[in-house]
Amino acid sequence: MSDFHFDHRQVRRNFGRAAGTYEKHDALQREVQSTLIERLDAFPQVPEVVLDVGAGTGRGTAALKKKYPRAQVIAVDIALPMLKQAKQNAAWLKPFARVAADAYTLPVPDNSVDILFSNLCFQWCEDLPRLFAECARVLKPGGLLTFSTFGPDTLTELRAAWASADQHAHVARFLDMHDVGDAMLAQGLKDPVLFAERYTLTYPTPRALLDELRGLGANNADAGRLRGLTGKQHYRRMLDAYEALRTEGTIPSTWEVVTAHAWGPPEGQSRREGGGEIASFSIDKLRGSRRKNPFT
Questions:
Q1: Per-residue pLDDT tens for 90-135?
Q2: pTM value?
Q3: Residue closest to 56 by CA, chosen among 82, 32, 75
Q4: In this predicted model, what pLDDT tens digit does every residue of 201-227 receive, in sequence order?
Q5: Hey, what's the torsion of the CAs at 177, 182, 187, 192, to 10 degrees?
Q6: What is the homologous superfamily of the domain 8-151+174-198+257-286 according to CATH?
Q7: Average pLDDT for residues 3-16, to the nearest whole number?
Q8: How many Cα neighbours within 13 Å face the side chain of 11?
Q9: Residue 246: CA count within 13 A, CB half-sphere
Q10: How far apart, in whole angstroms, are the C-alpha atoms of residue 24 and residue 20?
Q11: Domain limits, the chain
Q12: InterPro entries from the xrefs (predicted)?
Protein backbone atom coordinates (compact mmCIF):
# COMPACT_ATOMS: atom_id res chain seq x y z
CA MET A 1 0.00 0.00 0.00
CA SER A 2 2.87 2.40 0.73
CA ASP A 3 5.98 3.12 -1.29
CA PHE A 4 8.07 3.76 1.81
CA HIS A 5 9.04 1.85 4.93
CA PHE A 6 10.18 2.80 8.38
CA ASP A 7 13.29 1.44 10.03
CA HIS A 8 11.52 0.17 13.15
CA ARG A 9 14.73 -0.36 15.08
CA GLN A 10 15.46 3.33 14.50
CA VAL A 11 11.92 4.25 15.60
CA ARG A 12 12.52 2.33 18.84
CA ARG A 13 15.88 4.04 19.37
CA ASN A 14 14.48 7.51 18.67
CA PHE A 15 11.67 7.17 21.19
CA GLY A 16 13.90 5.50 23.74
CA ARG A 17 16.29 8.46 23.62
CA ALA A 18 13.39 10.91 23.94
CA ALA A 19 11.86 9.35 27.04
CA GLY A 20 13.26 12.02 29.35
CA THR A 21 12.34 15.00 27.14
CA TYR A 22 9.03 13.91 25.61
CA GLU A 23 6.72 15.65 28.08
CA LYS A 24 8.49 18.98 27.50
CA HIS A 25 7.33 18.98 23.89
CA ASP A 26 4.01 17.08 23.80
CA ALA A 27 1.46 19.94 23.83
CA LEU A 28 -0.15 18.80 20.57
CA GLN A 29 -0.14 15.17 21.68
CA ARG A 30 -1.94 16.13 24.90
CA GLU A 31 -4.53 18.19 23.01
CA VAL A 32 -5.35 15.31 20.65
CA GLN A 33 -5.35 12.84 23.55
CA SER A 34 -7.93 14.91 25.42
CA THR A 35 -10.19 14.91 22.35
CA LEU A 36 -9.98 11.12 22.01
CA ILE A 37 -10.72 10.53 25.68
CA GLU A 38 -13.69 12.91 25.64
CA ARG A 39 -15.16 10.95 22.73
CA LEU A 40 -15.10 7.79 24.84
CA ASP A 41 -18.17 9.17 26.64
CA ALA A 42 -20.16 7.86 23.67
CA PHE A 43 -19.01 4.29 24.38
CA PRO A 44 -21.91 2.82 26.36
CA GLN A 45 -20.21 -0.15 27.99
CA VAL A 46 -18.07 -0.35 31.11
CA PRO A 47 -14.86 -1.93 29.79
CA GLU A 48 -12.98 -4.72 31.47
CA VAL A 49 -9.76 -4.44 29.42
CA VAL A 50 -8.36 -1.24 27.91
CA LEU A 51 -5.20 -1.25 25.79
CA ASP A 52 -3.21 1.95 25.19
CA VAL A 53 -0.97 1.27 22.19
CA GLY A 54 2.02 3.58 21.79
CA ALA A 55 1.50 4.79 25.34
CA GLY A 56 4.78 6.72 25.55
CA THR A 57 5.21 8.24 28.99
CA GLY A 58 1.78 7.06 30.08
CA ARG A 59 -0.13 10.30 30.45
CA GLY A 60 -2.95 8.95 28.33
CA THR A 61 -2.87 5.60 30.09
CA ALA A 62 -3.23 7.33 33.46
CA ALA A 63 -6.22 9.29 32.13
CA LEU A 64 -7.81 6.06 30.89
CA LYS A 65 -7.28 4.41 34.27
CA LYS A 66 -8.87 7.41 35.97
CA LYS A 67 -11.86 7.17 33.61
CA TYR A 68 -12.19 3.41 34.02
CA PRO A 69 -10.86 2.65 37.53
CA ARG A 70 -12.16 -0.93 37.58
CA ALA A 71 -10.75 -1.89 34.20
CA GLN A 72 -7.44 -3.58 33.55
CA VAL A 73 -5.57 -0.83 31.71
CA ILE A 74 -2.38 -1.79 29.88
CA ALA A 75 0.25 0.56 28.46
CA VAL A 76 2.02 -0.86 25.40
CA ASP A 77 5.03 0.82 23.82
CA ILE A 78 7.89 -0.20 21.57
CA ALA A 79 10.45 1.73 23.66
CA LEU A 80 11.29 0.35 27.10
CA PRO A 81 12.65 3.72 28.39
CA MET A 82 9.24 5.26 27.67
CA LEU A 83 7.54 2.61 29.78
CA LYS A 84 10.01 3.17 32.60
CA GLN A 85 9.16 6.88 32.44
CA ALA A 86 5.45 5.99 32.44
CA LYS A 87 5.76 4.62 35.97
CA GLN A 88 5.83 8.23 37.18
CA ASN A 89 2.34 8.79 35.78
CA ALA A 90 0.84 5.69 37.38
CA ALA A 91 -1.03 6.72 40.53
CA TRP A 92 -0.50 4.53 43.60
CA LEU A 93 -4.23 3.85 43.95
CA LYS A 94 -4.80 3.55 40.17
CA PRO A 95 -1.82 1.64 38.75
CA PHE A 96 -1.69 0.31 35.21
CA ALA A 97 0.32 -2.46 33.60
CA ARG A 98 3.23 -1.67 31.26
CA VAL A 99 4.31 -4.02 28.47
CA ALA A 100 7.01 -3.56 25.82
CA ALA A 101 5.65 -4.59 22.41
CA ASP A 102 4.81 -3.10 19.04
CA ALA A 103 1.42 -2.51 17.44
CA TYR A 104 1.89 -5.39 14.99
CA THR A 105 2.16 -8.03 17.74
CA LEU A 106 -0.01 -7.02 20.68
CA PRO A 107 0.61 -9.17 23.79
CA VAL A 108 -3.02 -10.10 24.50
CA PRO A 109 -5.29 -13.00 23.46
CA ASP A 110 -7.81 -12.95 20.64
CA ASN A 111 -11.09 -11.12 21.36
CA SER A 112 -9.95 -9.90 24.77
CA VAL A 113 -9.95 -6.07 24.54
CA ASP A 114 -12.96 -3.79 25.07
CA ILE A 115 -11.23 -0.54 24.10
CA LEU A 116 -8.09 -0.27 21.99
CA PHE A 117 -6.84 3.31 22.31
CA SER A 118 -3.89 4.79 20.47
CA ASN A 119 -2.82 8.42 20.34
CA LEU A 120 -0.44 9.50 17.56
CA CYS A 121 1.32 6.17 17.24
CA PHE A 122 -0.12 4.44 14.18
CA GLN A 123 1.68 6.81 11.78
CA TRP A 124 4.82 4.74 12.46
CA CYS A 125 3.07 1.59 11.19
CA GLU A 126 3.13 1.75 7.40
CA ASP A 127 1.87 -1.85 6.96
CA LEU A 128 -1.80 -0.99 7.44
CA PRO A 129 -3.25 -4.45 6.61
CA ARG A 130 -1.03 -6.03 9.25
CA LEU A 131 -1.80 -3.28 11.78
CA PHE A 132 -5.57 -3.44 11.47
CA ALA A 133 -5.63 -7.22 11.26
CA GLU A 134 -3.98 -7.21 14.67
CA CYS A 135 -6.49 -4.67 16.01
CA ALA A 136 -9.36 -6.83 14.72
CA ARG A 137 -7.79 -9.91 16.30
CA VAL A 138 -7.59 -8.54 19.83
CA LEU A 139 -10.88 -6.63 19.97
CA LYS A 140 -13.94 -8.25 21.42
CA PRO A 141 -16.90 -8.35 19.03
CA GLY A 142 -18.30 -4.82 19.25
CA GLY A 143 -15.21 -3.58 21.10
CA LEU A 144 -14.05 -0.06 20.28
CA LEU A 145 -10.95 0.94 18.34
CA THR A 146 -10.22 4.66 18.70
CA PHE A 147 -7.01 6.27 17.54
CA SER A 148 -5.27 9.30 16.08
CA THR A 149 -2.49 9.40 13.54
CA PHE A 150 -0.67 11.95 11.41
CA GLY A 151 -1.71 12.49 7.80
CA PRO A 152 0.52 13.26 4.78
CA ASP A 153 0.27 17.05 5.11
CA THR A 154 2.08 16.92 8.45
CA LEU A 155 5.32 18.96 8.40
CA THR A 156 4.67 20.01 4.81
CA GLU A 157 6.69 23.22 5.25
CA LEU A 158 9.73 21.35 6.58
CA ARG A 159 9.46 18.80 3.78
CA ALA A 160 9.32 21.56 1.16
CA ALA A 161 12.27 23.37 2.72
CA TRP A 162 14.39 20.21 2.60
CA ALA A 163 13.28 19.55 -0.99
CA SER A 164 14.80 22.88 -1.98
CA ALA A 165 18.13 21.75 -0.49
CA ASP A 166 18.46 18.19 -1.84
CA GLN A 167 16.45 15.18 -3.02
CA HIS A 168 16.96 12.95 0.02
CA ALA A 169 14.23 11.92 2.50
CA HIS A 170 14.64 14.06 5.63
CA VAL A 171 11.06 14.10 6.93
CA ALA A 172 8.86 11.11 7.77
CA ARG A 173 6.04 10.38 5.32
CA PHE A 174 2.57 9.38 6.48
CA LEU A 175 -0.38 7.65 4.82
CA ASP A 176 -3.56 9.27 3.53
CA MET A 177 -6.80 9.09 5.51
CA HIS A 178 -8.53 7.23 2.67
CA ASP A 179 -5.86 4.51 2.70
CA VAL A 180 -6.35 4.17 6.45
CA GLY A 181 -10.12 3.83 6.13
CA ASP A 182 -9.86 1.29 3.29
CA ALA A 183 -7.44 -0.82 5.31
CA MET A 184 -9.75 -0.81 8.33
CA LEU A 185 -12.65 -2.06 6.23
CA ALA A 186 -10.51 -4.70 4.52
CA GLN A 187 -9.59 -6.22 7.88
CA GLY A 188 -13.19 -6.50 9.02
CA LEU A 189 -13.42 -3.53 11.38
CA LYS A 190 -16.99 -2.28 11.44
CA ASP A 191 -18.38 1.15 10.59
CA PRO A 192 -15.14 3.16 10.56
CA VAL A 193 -15.48 6.92 10.91
CA LEU A 194 -12.52 9.22 10.23
CA PHE A 195 -11.93 12.95 10.67
CA ALA A 196 -9.01 15.10 9.54
CA GLU A 197 -8.01 18.37 11.21
CA ARG A 198 -5.05 20.64 10.62
CA TYR A 199 -3.16 22.34 13.41
CA THR A 200 -0.68 25.12 12.69
CA LEU A 201 1.98 25.48 15.36
CA THR A 202 4.47 28.32 15.33
CA TYR A 203 8.11 28.43 16.35
CA PRO A 204 10.68 31.20 16.73
CA THR A 205 13.10 29.48 14.36
CA PRO A 206 13.29 26.34 12.19
CA ARG A 207 15.86 24.97 14.64
CA ALA A 208 13.26 25.20 17.42
CA LEU A 209 10.97 22.93 15.41
CA LEU A 210 13.81 20.47 14.80
CA ASP A 211 14.63 20.47 18.51
CA GLU A 212 10.99 19.69 19.29
CA LEU A 213 10.92 16.78 16.85
CA ARG A 214 14.06 15.38 18.43
CA GLY A 215 12.63 15.89 21.93
CA LEU A 216 9.50 13.95 20.93
CA GLY A 217 11.47 11.14 19.32
CA ALA A 218 9.90 12.02 15.96
CA ASN A 219 13.21 12.11 14.09
CA ASN A 220 13.26 10.81 10.54
CA ALA A 221 13.22 7.00 10.60
CA ASP A 222 12.47 6.41 6.92
CA ALA A 223 14.34 3.30 5.79
CA GLY A 224 15.45 5.26 2.72
CA ARG A 225 16.83 8.19 4.68
CA LEU A 226 20.33 9.51 4.05
CA ARG A 227 22.82 7.87 6.41
CA GLY A 228 25.52 10.01 7.99
CA LEU A 229 25.62 13.74 8.58
CA THR A 230 23.87 16.20 6.33
CA GLY A 231 26.28 18.68 4.76
CA LYS A 232 26.37 22.15 6.29
CA GLN A 233 25.61 23.75 2.96
CA HIS A 234 22.45 21.69 2.47
CA TYR A 235 21.37 22.32 6.05
CA ARG A 236 21.87 26.06 5.61
CA ARG A 237 19.90 26.00 2.38
CA MET A 238 17.01 24.27 4.14
CA LEU A 239 17.01 26.83 6.96
CA ASP A 240 17.00 29.71 4.47
CA ALA A 241 14.06 28.19 2.57
CA TYR A 242 12.10 27.75 5.79
CA GLU A 243 12.91 31.30 6.93
CA ALA A 244 11.22 32.58 3.77
CA LEU A 245 7.93 31.42 5.31
CA ARG A 246 8.32 33.62 8.39
CA THR A 247 5.28 35.77 9.17
CA GLU A 248 4.71 38.03 12.16
CA GLY A 249 7.97 36.92 13.72
CA THR A 250 7.40 33.16 13.67
CA ILE A 251 7.67 30.25 11.27
CA PRO A 252 4.65 27.90 10.80
CA SER A 253 4.43 24.13 10.96
CA THR A 254 1.37 22.22 9.78
CA TRP A 255 0.26 19.02 11.53
CA GLU A 256 -2.54 17.03 9.89
CA VAL A 257 -4.21 14.91 12.55
CA VAL A 258 -6.55 12.08 11.56
CA THR A 259 -8.80 10.71 14.30
CA ALA A 260 -10.82 7.56 13.78
CA HIS A 261 -12.94 4.95 15.46
CA ALA A 262 -14.39 1.59 14.46
CA TRP A 263 -15.83 -1.51 16.10
CA GLY A 264 -14.53 -5.02 16.53
CA PRO A 265 -15.91 -7.49 13.97
CA PRO A 266 -18.59 -9.98 15.01
CA GLU A 267 -17.47 -13.44 16.00
CA GLY A 268 -16.69 -15.63 13.02
CA GLN A 269 -16.26 -12.79 10.52
CA SER A 270 -13.28 -13.56 8.34
CA ARG A 271 -10.20 -11.38 8.29
CA ARG A 272 -7.40 -11.30 5.76
CA GLU A 273 -4.09 -12.82 6.80
CA GLY A 274 -1.30 -13.62 4.41
CA GLY A 275 -2.81 -14.78 1.14
CA GLY A 276 -6.13 -15.96 2.54
CA GLU A 277 -8.86 -15.32 5.05
CA ILE A 278 -9.29 -16.59 8.60
CA ALA A 279 -12.55 -16.90 10.53
CA SER A 280 -12.51 -17.61 14.25
CA PHE A 281 -15.13 -19.14 16.53
CA SER A 282 -15.07 -20.10 20.18
CA ILE A 283 -14.93 -23.84 20.83
CA ASP A 284 -18.41 -23.63 22.37
CA LYS A 285 -19.81 -22.40 19.07
CA LEU A 286 -18.30 -25.36 17.27
CA ARG A 287 -19.60 -28.00 19.68
CA GLY A 288 -22.73 -29.65 18.39
CA SER A 289 -22.46 -27.98 15.02
CA ARG A 290 -21.40 -31.08 13.09
CA ARG A 291 -24.08 -32.81 11.12
CA LYS A 292 -24.64 -36.43 12.02
CA ASN A 293 -23.43 -38.83 9.34
CA PRO A 294 -26.54 -40.85 8.23
CA PHE A 295 -24.33 -43.79 7.31
CA THR A 296 -22.98 -44.39 10.81
A1: 887 788 999 999 999 999 999 999 999 999 999 999 999 999 999 9
A2: 0.87
A3: 82
A4: 999 999 999 999 999 998 865 655 554
A5: 70
A6: Vaccinia Virus protein VP39 (3.40.50.150)
A7: 84
A8: 20
A9: 11
A10: 9
A11: 8-151+174-198+257-286
A12: BioC (IPR011814), Malonyl-ACP_OMT (IPR050602), Methyltransf_11 (IPR013216), SAM-dependent_MTases_sf (IPR029063)
